[in-house]
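re: ur question from earlier - yeah i can do the single chain one, its not a big deal. heres the input i used so u can compare w yours
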Amino acid sequence: MSYTLRTVVPELFQKRDPLDPKLNEILKRGFSLPLNTVKKGSGRPVLLRYGFPDGKLFPVEDLMKICYMVIEILMQEDDNFIVVGEEAIVDLKDISLAAIGQWTPALAKKVITSFEKALPVRVKNMHLLNPPPGFETMFAFIKSFMSDKLKKRIHLHNPPYENFHKEFSQEALPVEYGGKNGTIQELTDYWKAKVESYRDWFLAEESIRSDESRRPEKPKTASSLFGLEGSFRKLDVD
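and the output i got, formated as tokens:
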């Protein structure tokens, strides 16, 4: 399934040159930042910063492409990440209505399916910080594509983040999040250089795909995996 999805979802898994101007701009802004400190027995914290103070809008496909690229690097380098999993921290501060509006049913289904099926990574928990007004509607929509197991691992946090800080110590978090573990800019510079250092690897991965013409049964396609349901699925909001 991993290589099948890499084949049928090219918008997320192809054209992954980190020096491409569009992708490099996202790297410069520090969208996907694994944190350095891992508590014993815990997953690797990965900070995702969806909003940008200047309102700059990036295609969700490109943002998620960078997210998956960083995850694949962690799969190469961090045994704890493979064995224990990931603690995702998603900061929604400064996210715009235009950014929220990019999450169509079809795209949401592709992103969630790819995350759950194409990447052999366990999400131990997902912490959502600073949810904007009206976020509940979008959140219910995105959750409709998640497995029941993942839904139970999602936690929302608003200031002063008391429960969040019970999960992550000052030693784990950047100073901008009340911690002592470096700054966002330092993490951004490190991970921009790290992803760029994998450029040859990502370019070589472009040619590694499933050959659906050789599948004994019916070849897998975006239509057979996602169907029209991805575009027209009814949104049920509690």
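Residues 228-238 have pLDDT under 50 and may be disordered. not sure if urs matches, ping me
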